[in-house]
Amino acid sequence: MASVFSRIVAGEIPSYKIAEDEFHFAFLDINPVANGHVLVIPKKEIDNIFDIEDQEFQSLWIFAKNIAKGIQKSIPCLKVGISVIGLEVPHAHIHLVPINSIGDINFSKTKLTPSKEELEKVQKLIISNIPGTI
Ligand code: AMP
């Protein structure tokens, strides 16, 4: 069965899309650990990120870098932190999280539950800071 993220890419499940190209897709995490938390995935479904073929692995991170720069411009933060976990969704993804302290990227704490309006607002803001998207 297709992963929830493949279903998002296929448009079967709605998402707060930030950017996409032929091979990659970025969208807001609906239960973020911090405001502006974005997930970056390869469109090709593969569970373990370290099973991705070298060239595709490189291009995934280059795509993520561009998104991270857009997040950094959008959300007041010291850094955009990176996490790769994958314990919940078996489709490789990079978490990009705006952080001011290590506690901002703590996945064991209770996650946020932003409203549709709040998600749409941060979606628009990040998109506006990524040249050439959507
Ligand atoms: P993990 O697999 O442990 O790296 O976590 C998966 C992440 O995907 C979690 O942070 C979830 O909040 C997020 N997530 C799960 N389903 C969706 C969805 N439909 N849209 C956006 N984010 C999701």
What does this structure look like?
The chain has 134 residues and is of the alpha+beta class. The chain has a single domain (4-107), classed as HIT-like (HIT family, subunit A). It has 3 helices and 5 strands; from the N terminus they run αβββαββα. It has a 5-stranded antiparallel beta sheet. The protein is globular and about 35 Å long. The relative contact order is 0.22. The mean pLDDT is 96. Adenosine monophosphate (AMP) is lined by residues 4, 13, 15, 29-31, 39, 85-89.
Task: Give keywords.
HIT family, subunit A; alpha+beta; single chain; binds adenosine monophosphate; globular; 5-stranded antiparallel beta sheet; 5 strands
State Rg.
Answer: 14 Å
Largest sheet: 5 strands, antiparallel
**What would you say the CATH architecture is?**
2-Layer Sandwich
Which fold does the CATH topology refer to?
Answer: HIT family, subunit A
Number of domains: 1
Cα shape: globular
CATH superfamily: HIT-like
Structural category: alpha+beta
Q: How large is the share of residues in beta strands? A: 15-25%
CATH class, please?
Answer: Alpha Beta
Strands in their spatial order, largest beta sheet = 1-2-3-5-4
- Write out the distinct hetero groups bound to the structure: adenosine monophosphate
Helix content: 25-40%
Total count of strands:
5
H-E string:
HEEEHEEH
Low-confidence stretches: none
Mean pLDDT: 96
Termini separation (Å)? Answer: 28 Å
